Amino acid sequence: MKKILQDLSFSELENLILSLGEKKFRAKQLYDGLMLGKKISDINVSKELRTRLLDEYEDEPVKIIKTLTSSDGTEKYLFSLADGNVIEGVFMQYSYGNTQCVSTQVGCRMGCKFCASTLGGLVRNLSSGEILCEVLAVNALHGGTASKRAVTNIVLMGSGEPLDNYDEVIKFLKNVSAEGGINISPRNISLSTCGIVPKIYDLADEGLPVNLTISLHSPDDEGRARTMPIAKKYSVAEILKACGYYFEKTGRRYIFEYSLIAGENCEKEHAEKLIKLLKGKPCHVNLIRLNEVEERNLKTVTDKQAYQFLGMLEKGGLSATIRRSMGNDIGGACGQLRAGYIKGENI
Length: 347
Hints:
By secondary structure, the protein is an alpha/beta fold. It has helices at about 10-20, 25-35, 45-55, 130-140, 165-175, 195-205, 220-225, 235-250, 270-280, 305-315, 335-340; strands at about 60-70, 75-80, 85-95, 95-100, 105, 120-125, 155, 190-195, 210-215, 255-260, 285-290, 320. Helix 6 links the parallel strand 8 (about 190-195) and strand 9.
């Protein structure tokens, strides 16, 4: 597999162009073309420079090979990578803008029982440029440019655990928010993690005020460990302490994702524990009606049960909402599209 030009920041690209004996302005030509989602072979530079670049760099590191469209307008993509691996992403339209969920790994090793991403384990990490190419490809598909973006918000939760690919994710965050590029503000980016505590502290110190979202799914360690192996390493108390540090450093409240699983975490006792755990903290609880995964035996709740649980949290003084279900008819859960493709299903 060749190198990926989109891994480079603009200044790194300038240095590369100068090292090749080219004029500095060629870097801007290349960078502008890449930010439009173009292949190297389609960018208007000299044939000689194009040939030299293509000898070392992938022409199209990430390519959309399948698009599924939901009845609610949500789009789900299957991307192919230059090494033959596949990943997935989702594009959702809201009143405030368009959000894209991106993958940060091929597969995942976290083993959460409600997620399809982890079924085949971790294959490899994505590079910062591959993650960026997901955004550039979807932005271009919807007619967006660097100055008039079709993708306005990003969520790092498509497949994989972002903090398990820390260095490349941080580089992606810096490059995707860089002025002169696609320039999506860190405040419009959410990073969803299962709770790798040391990396939460590292993220807080990066000076990138992204929205930190924690997959909680239970108010206590015992319940969490039944569906999330990471809970055996980091306790809820440790996660809360790290979240407090994140708020102290960034001034950004943190969000807890809480998938409602029938018979597991959505009774009155769970609501009471959650209220006791979180009341008074600068956080929000995002309740999710579980997207059922065929290979798992976990079941979702009814709408009535979901709103009853929400009512208990609100009555107890917590800020909470139920996330709008989108894309259920096209395999809305993380990893479902990729898992179906790998199994050879007709998708």
